[in-house]
Specification:
Strand content: under 5%
Mean pLDDT: 78
Distance between the termini: 18 Å
Low-confidence stretches: 100-111
Helix content: over 70%
Number of strands: 0
Order of helices and strands: HHHHHHHHH
Shape: globular
Number of domains: 1
Largest sheet: none
Structural class: mainly alpha
Number of helices: 9
Length: 189
Protein backbone atom coordinates (compact mmCIF):
# COMPACT_ATOMS: atom_id res chain seq x y z
CA UNK A 1 0.00 0.00 0.00
CA UNK A 2 2.87 2.40 0.71
CA UNK A 3 4.15 2.00 -2.83
CA UNK A 4 0.73 2.61 -4.39
CA UNK A 5 0.03 5.62 -2.16
CA UNK A 6 3.31 7.29 -2.99
CA UNK A 7 2.90 6.63 -6.73
CA UNK A 8 -0.64 8.03 -6.69
CA UNK A 9 0.43 11.07 -4.69
CA UNK A 10 3.57 11.88 -6.72
CA UNK A 11 2.38 11.17 -10.27
CA UNK A 12 0.01 14.16 -10.69
CA UNK A 13 2.71 16.81 -10.55
CA UNK A 14 5.77 14.92 -11.84
CA UNK A 15 5.01 16.03 -15.40
CA UNK A 16 4.89 19.71 -14.42
CA UNK A 17 8.18 19.42 -12.53
CA UNK A 18 9.77 17.68 -15.53
CA UNK A 19 8.64 20.54 -17.75
CA UNK A 20 10.51 22.99 -15.52
CA UNK A 21 13.61 20.99 -14.62
CA UNK A 22 13.91 18.69 -17.64
CA UNK A 23 12.87 15.10 -18.22
CA UNK A 24 16.38 13.71 -18.07
CA UNK A 25 16.99 14.97 -14.53
CA UNK A 26 13.58 13.91 -13.27
CA UNK A 27 14.09 10.40 -14.68
CA UNK A 28 17.55 10.13 -13.10
CA UNK A 29 16.22 11.40 -9.77
CA UNK A 30 13.39 8.86 -9.94
CA UNK A 31 15.86 6.04 -10.52
CA UNK A 32 17.94 7.21 -7.55
CA UNK A 33 14.81 7.13 -5.38
CA UNK A 34 13.99 3.60 -6.58
CA UNK A 35 17.53 2.34 -5.93
CA UNK A 36 17.63 3.91 -2.47
CA UNK A 37 14.19 2.54 -1.60
CA UNK A 38 15.09 -0.95 -2.81
CA UNK A 39 18.31 -0.76 -0.79
CA UNK A 40 16.18 0.00 2.28
CA UNK A 41 13.88 -2.91 1.46
CA UNK A 42 16.77 -5.30 0.80
CA UNK A 43 18.57 -4.44 4.05
CA UNK A 44 15.45 -4.17 6.22
CA UNK A 45 15.37 -6.14 9.44
CA UNK A 46 11.96 -4.80 10.46
CA UNK A 47 8.71 -4.48 8.53
CA UNK A 48 8.33 -0.72 9.11
CA UNK A 49 11.69 -0.10 7.43
CA UNK A 50 10.62 -2.23 4.44
CA UNK A 51 7.32 -0.34 4.20
CA UNK A 52 9.19 2.97 4.29
CA UNK A 53 11.48 1.68 1.55
CA UNK A 54 8.43 0.78 -0.54
CA UNK A 55 7.12 4.34 -0.11
CA UNK A 56 10.45 5.73 -1.36
CA UNK A 57 10.33 3.29 -4.31
CA UNK A 58 6.84 4.55 -5.14
CA UNK A 59 8.02 8.16 -5.37
CA UNK A 60 10.84 7.12 -7.68
CA UNK A 61 8.58 4.90 -9.77
CA UNK A 62 6.09 7.73 -10.29
CA UNK A 63 8.89 9.97 -11.52
CA UNK A 64 10.76 7.45 -13.66
CA UNK A 65 7.87 5.52 -15.24
CA UNK A 66 5.89 8.56 -16.30
CA UNK A 67 8.96 10.17 -17.78
CA UNK A 68 9.85 6.93 -19.61
CA UNK A 69 6.82 7.05 -21.89
CA UNK A 70 7.20 10.80 -22.44
CA UNK A 71 10.90 10.32 -23.18
CA UNK A 72 10.23 7.63 -25.76
CA UNK A 73 7.76 9.91 -27.50
CA UNK A 74 10.28 12.73 -27.39
CA UNK A 75 13.18 10.89 -29.05
CA UNK A 76 11.30 8.72 -31.60
CA UNK A 77 10.09 10.12 -34.94
CA UNK A 78 6.36 10.83 -35.06
CA UNK A 79 5.57 8.17 -37.67
CA UNK A 80 7.16 5.42 -35.49
CA UNK A 81 5.90 6.45 -32.05
CA UNK A 82 3.04 3.96 -32.00
CA UNK A 83 5.38 1.00 -32.46
CA UNK A 84 7.84 2.14 -29.82
CA UNK A 85 5.23 3.09 -27.23
CA UNK A 86 3.46 -0.23 -27.91
CA UNK A 87 6.68 -2.15 -27.22
CA UNK A 88 7.26 -0.06 -24.09
CA UNK A 89 3.84 -0.96 -22.70
CA UNK A 90 4.17 -4.60 -23.75
CA UNK A 91 7.12 -4.77 -21.38
CA UNK A 92 4.70 -4.02 -18.51
CA UNK A 93 2.51 -7.08 -19.23
CA UNK A 94 4.53 -9.66 -17.22
CA UNK A 95 4.38 -7.39 -14.19
CA UNK A 96 0.75 -6.26 -14.50
CA UNK A 97 -0.82 -9.63 -13.76
CA UNK A 98 1.28 -10.08 -10.65
CA UNK A 99 0.54 -6.59 -9.43
CA UNK A 100 -3.16 -6.55 -10.15
CA UNK A 101 -4.21 -10.06 -9.22
CA UNK A 102 -1.35 -11.59 -7.26
CA UNK A 103 -1.55 -14.71 -9.43
CA UNK A 104 1.31 -15.32 -11.81
CA UNK A 105 2.15 -17.84 -14.51
CA UNK A 106 2.05 -21.34 -13.06
CA UNK A 107 4.84 -23.84 -13.67
CA UNK A 108 4.73 -27.62 -13.61
CA UNK A 109 5.90 -27.69 -9.99
CA UNK A 110 2.89 -25.55 -8.98
CA UNK A 111 5.13 -22.65 -7.96
CA UNK A 112 4.07 -19.25 -9.15
CA UNK A 113 6.48 -16.72 -10.61
CA UNK A 114 6.74 -14.74 -7.37
CA UNK A 115 7.74 -17.89 -5.49
CA UNK A 116 10.39 -18.73 -8.09
CA UNK A 117 11.65 -15.17 -7.91
CA UNK A 118 12.20 -15.40 -4.17
CA UNK A 119 12.79 -19.13 -3.70
CA UNK A 120 16.15 -18.68 -2.02
CA UNK A 121 15.74 -15.23 -0.53
CA UNK A 122 13.06 -12.59 -0.95
CA UNK A 123 15.83 -10.00 -0.83
CA UNK A 124 16.80 -10.98 -4.37
CA UNK A 125 13.85 -8.92 -5.56
CA UNK A 126 15.52 -5.82 -4.15
CA UNK A 127 18.96 -6.66 -5.51
CA UNK A 128 17.67 -7.41 -9.02
CA UNK A 129 15.71 -4.14 -9.01
CA UNK A 130 18.81 -2.21 -7.95
CA UNK A 131 20.88 -3.82 -10.72
CA UNK A 132 18.25 -3.05 -13.38
CA UNK A 133 17.81 0.54 -12.16
CA UNK A 134 21.59 1.06 -12.12
CA UNK A 135 21.80 -0.14 -15.72
CA UNK A 136 18.95 2.22 -16.67
CA UNK A 137 20.61 5.08 -14.81
CA UNK A 138 23.88 4.59 -16.71
CA UNK A 139 22.10 4.35 -20.07
CA UNK A 140 19.96 7.43 -19.47
CA UNK A 141 22.92 9.41 -18.16
CA UNK A 142 25.05 8.45 -21.16
CA UNK A 143 22.56 8.60 -24.03
CA UNK A 144 19.39 10.55 -23.19
CA UNK A 145 19.77 14.23 -24.00
CA UNK A 146 16.32 15.59 -24.81
CA UNK A 147 15.88 19.09 -26.18
CA UNK A 148 15.38 21.79 -23.53
CA UNK A 149 11.80 22.37 -22.46
CA UNK A 150 10.24 25.59 -23.78
CA UNK A 151 9.09 26.66 -20.29
CA UNK A 152 12.60 26.64 -18.87
CA UNK A 153 14.45 28.36 -21.70
CA UNK A 154 16.15 31.48 -20.48
CA UNK A 155 15.20 31.02 -16.82
CA UNK A 156 17.81 30.85 -14.10
CA UNK A 157 17.78 27.98 -11.61
CA UNK A 158 16.37 30.26 -8.91
CA UNK A 159 13.54 31.37 -11.23
CA UNK A 160 12.77 27.74 -12.03
CA UNK A 161 12.70 26.87 -8.31
CA UNK A 162 10.38 29.82 -7.65
CA UNK A 163 7.92 28.45 -10.24
CA UNK A 164 7.60 25.11 -8.43
CA UNK A 165 4.66 25.15 -6.03
CA UNK A 166 6.19 23.28 -3.08
CA UNK A 167 3.32 24.07 -0.70
CA UNK A 168 0.73 22.95 -3.25
CA UNK A 169 2.72 19.79 -3.92
CA UNK A 170 2.94 19.01 -0.21
CA UNK A 171 -0.77 19.65 0.30
CA UNK A 172 -1.60 17.55 -2.76
CA UNK A 173 0.59 14.68 -1.57
CA UNK A 174 -0.63 14.70 1.99
CA UNK A 175 -4.29 15.22 1.09
CA UNK A 176 -4.25 12.48 -1.51
CA UNK A 177 -2.46 10.10 0.85
CA UNK A 178 -4.97 10.75 3.63
CA UNK A 179 -7.87 10.30 1.19
CA UNK A 180 -6.51 6.97 -0.11
CA UNK A 181 -5.75 5.72 3.40
CA UNK A 182 -9.33 6.52 4.40
CA UNK A 183 -10.64 4.52 1.45
CA UNK A 184 -8.23 1.64 2.19
CA UNK A 185 -9.12 1.45 5.87
CA UNK A 186 -12.86 2.03 5.46
CA UNK A 187 -14.90 -0.56 7.28
CA UNK A 188 -12.12 -1.73 9.60
CA UNK A 189 -12.54 -1.13 13.31
Amino acid sequence: MANTLSIAATAPFSGAVSDLIGRRWVALTGLLFVMFGMLLVGLAKRMDVAIGGCAVVGVGAALAELIASAGVMEIVPVNKRGKYVGVLFLLYIPVMGCSAFGICIRTSSRLNLAQLYSQYSWRWGAWISIILCAMNFILIFAFYYPPPRPNSLGLSKIEILKRIDFLGGFLSLSGFAIFLMGIQWAGYT
